[in-house]
Write a structure and sequence with these properties.
The structure holds 2 protein chains of 2 kinds. In chain A, helix 5 packs antiparallel against helix 15 and helix 11 crosses helix 13. The two termini of chain A are 22 Å apart. In chain A, the strands form 3 sheets. Chain A has a two-stranded antiparallel sheet. By secondary structure, chain A is mainly α. Chain A folds into 2 domains: 77 residues; 279 residues, ABC transporter involved in vitamin B12 uptake, BtuC (Orthogonal Bundle), CATH 1.10.3470. By secondary structure, chain B is mainly alpha-helical. Chain B has a domain of 196 residues. In chain B, helix 6 packs across helix 8 and helix 9 crosses helix 10. The chains are: A mainly alpha, B mainly alpha.
Chain lengths: 389, 306
């Protein structure tokens, strides 16, 4: 059988991708820069109208297609754009802190996506896994002379090991039943931390700061009168971690690992009939996901400098789950977009701070009713190079 | 340990079991007819307590001073208000999402819970602070044999038990209950047999929310304090109880509620040095039970295994 004749390659323009990226970054910069509440509300209205018009003119699908066709270029451009954006706020601690928090949530949600989006394992204990990482950083950092950079993989490892306690029930139960296992674990985790005095109780624990090669991350920089807030250190490291984790998750998704995980999620019975080892792949997804979430938690603790059980409640797990469902299950760019929205928006809307959770819940309700696949649904798997669905 | 203290533990255990069961039965009813987890149910319970308080204040202002009348009217108003809330929830939020992934529905109901919780906190006068709930029942004690039990506890237990028995009679003995069970078992077949599916779903949501109303009133009367966040933990416990018992089974939900209360009381009695760990203990046991019986203690679903 001969291969069909090659079609002339479609024009793979980066135009829409770059245009969209520029527009998004400019918009984000404006939202971050503006402080007056009426201006922010105005910006939100403009943004919503802009997205609506772009969707009507088919610009958004052109943007996504452009990203898909020129993946390497657009990935690099996106990283550069985020770095430029952060450089613009080099002396604003708050903005850099906010951006780094977004990055941490992206990392955690990518881990959750492995479990949830690919293997279909409900995990409502994301915050508990963040907490395991955070408490690892605090306890090991205090008691042993471990270089802080090593705490990151150690935190991930501890989360994977402690999370594996849940593996036997998770492998035996399905759907809502496994949801209750993780919900129970998260409640158990925070209650335990609150009542057990050894880990600081409700007061929490201080965490040492990050340092690398003699550079303490909690020092501001000053080069020729050019001041850089110390959160810039955390931001750069966070961005590096995000890029690494996103690359690993994407490689996993596109390899036979991702294929096996998809098979497990879509139909366990037929996957099993075709020789996919369900228990093995669920264990792989659950433990690697928890490793990534634990890593994010360790980094979060190192940046905050202080952790308490209230950082890791069931409500925080819900926020992580919300991010990946709103982004579109399994979609990496979806996680990035919604993490930015979910973390930044409530912080900027301080004037209506009292009402922000209410508004946020209402917005999510509307998205679920009218855009149930999430904001950026996961693209179909590309089985052959150059293949377009 | 003196019999008095044991009796106290027993009564408070019964009271907890009652409240948990009432909430868990709601979870299991919703799951039965619509295969969804209504995660806002805990917050519906909280709204019930606040509606009860408001109606009490309203009744006092309106000049109704007979305690028994106040109590009865309060319960009636609360049940009616929450049944309406349940019906509206089903009509506006849950039924339109039929066919969506189960996860989206779960998230939707969690968001509804947030909306209810935040609305009470923001719009109820000083809703962010705990509110005192009036003592409406006589607090004198009667002696049963050689132990003393407070009258109000007996009345509350009686109300709760009557409600649970009433619901199980309704489900198992009436035509409406037959229709609910039919829809729970097989929606398509139930429809072809002429059962009005939408109506049954709405009625079930009304019924389940009314149970949460009773639980809310009892909880307010028992603890004499209510606050806007009390629904979150109770929702999680009620959900755990329903799941542990086996979703879709009424007796499973009641069993789960009793089990959870017993676990908490055992946690408090057996480990007095660590009574703060009672929730940790209860949730740990739930995880172990789920490992042992992956579809709950009384399972109604045939499991699909390869």
């Amino acid at each position: 059988m001969r291969a069909p004749p090659e079609e002339p390659p479609a024009r793979k323009s980066v135009f829409f991708g770059v245009g969209g990226l520029l527009a998004a970054m400019l918009y984000l910069a404006l939202v971050l820069r503006v402080d007056s509440q009426s201006a922010i509300l105005g910006l939100l209205a403009i943004g919503a109208t802009g997205v609506f018009i772009a969707a009507r003119l088919d610009l958004i699908s052109a943007f996504r297609q452009s990203y898909r066709d020129n993946e390497r270029v657009m990935d690099v451009l996106s990283i550069v754009a985020v770095l430029i954006l952060a450089a613009g706020f080099h002396n604003s601690s708050f903005i850099l802190f906010l951006l780094t928090t977004v990055l941490i949530n992206i990392i955690a949600c990518l881990g959750l996506n492995l479990q949830f989006g690919y293997a279909g394992m409900l995990n409502f204990a994301g915050a508990a896994m963040l907490g395991v990482g955070g408490y690892t950083a605090a306890l090991l950092g205090q008691n042993a002379a471990i270089p802080p950079i090593l705490l990151l993989p150690l935190g991930g490892l501890f989360a994977a090991v402690i999370g594996s306690i849940l593996l036997p029930p998770m492998l035996r139960t399905q759907g809502h039943y496994s949801a209750v296992v993780t919900i129970a674990f998260n409640l158990l985790f925070t209650t335990f931390l609150e009542v057990y005095g050894g880990f600081g109780g409700t007061q929490g624990l201080p965490v040492q700061s990050m340092s690398l090669l003699g550079l303490d991350f909690n020092d501001d920089w000053k080069i020729n009168g050019f001041e850089v807030a110390f959160y810039a250190n955390y931001f750069v490291l966070g961005l590096m971690l995000t890029v690494i984790v996103a690359a690993v998750v994407r490689r996993m998704e596109r390899s036979w690992i991702g294929l096996s995980l998809d098979a497990v999620r879509l139909d366990e019975t037929s996957a099993r009939c075709f020789g996919v080892n369900i228990a093995l792949w669920k264990a792989v997804a659950f433990m690697s996901g928890n490793f990534i979430i634990g890593l994010a938690g360790t980094f979060y603790a190192l940046m905050l400098g202080y952790i308490a059980p209230t950082n890791f409640t069931f409500g925080d797990s819900l926020i992580l789950v919300t991010i990946i469902i709103l982004g579109g299950l399994g979609s990496i760019w979806g996680v990035i977009l919604t993490a930015a929205i979910v973390i930044i928006l409530p912080e900027k809307l301080q004037a209506i701070q009292e009402y922000r959770f209410l508004l946020y819940a209402i917005v999510v309700t509307f998205v679920l009713l009218f855009q149930p696949g999430g904001l950026l649904p996961r693209a179909p798997r590309i089985f052959f190079p150059g293949w377009r669905p | 340990m003196s019999p008095d203290i044991l009796a106290q533990y027993f009564v408070s255990g019964l009271m907890l079991a009652m409240i948990y069961s009432l909430v868990a039965v709601g979870f299991t009813l919703f799951f039965g007819v619509l295969d969804i987890i209504h995660f806002a149910h805990g917050d519906v319970f909280m709204v019930g307590a606040f509606v009860a308080l408001t109606s009490f204040i309203g009744l006092t202002l309106a000049g109704v001073n007979i305690v028994a009348l106040q109590l009865v009217l309060m319960i009636v108003v609360t049940i009616a208000a929450l049944a309406l809330l349940g019906i509206l929830t089903a009509r506006l939020l849950v039924l339109p999402m039929k066919g969506a992934p189960a996860l989206n529905v779960l998230l939707m109901t969690m968001m509804l819970g947030t909306i209810l919780r935040e609305s009470v906190r923001l719009f109820y006068p000083e809703g962010a602070n705990p509110k005192a709930f009036p003592h409406l029942l006589p607090t004198a004690s009667v002696s049963l044999g050689n132990i003393m039990v407070r009258i109000d506890n007996i009345i509350m237990l009686a109300i709760g038990a009557a409600t649970i028995v009433g619901v199980s009679l309704l489900i198992n003995r009436t035509k409406l209950g037959l229709a609910i069970r039919a829809v729970a078992q097989d929606e398509e077949t139930a429809k072809t047999m002429g059962i009005n599916y939408t109506l049954i779903v709405l009625v079930t949501f009304g019924l389940g929310s009314a149970l949460a109303a009773v639980a809310g009133v009892i909880s307010g009367l028992y603890y004499n304090e209510i606050n806007f966040s009390m629904g979150l933990m109770l929702g999680a416990i009620g959900f755990s109880a329903a799941i542990t018992g086996g979703l879709g089974s009424i007796y499973g939900a009641i069993l789960g509620g009793i089990l959870f209360a017993v676990l908490q009381i055992i946690g408090a009695v057996a480990m007095p040095f660590a009574s703060a760990y009672k929730d940790v203990f209860a949730f740990a046991v739930v995880i172990v039970i789920m490992t042992w019986r992956p579809t709950g203690l009384i399972s109604t679903l045939s499991s699909e295994r390869v």
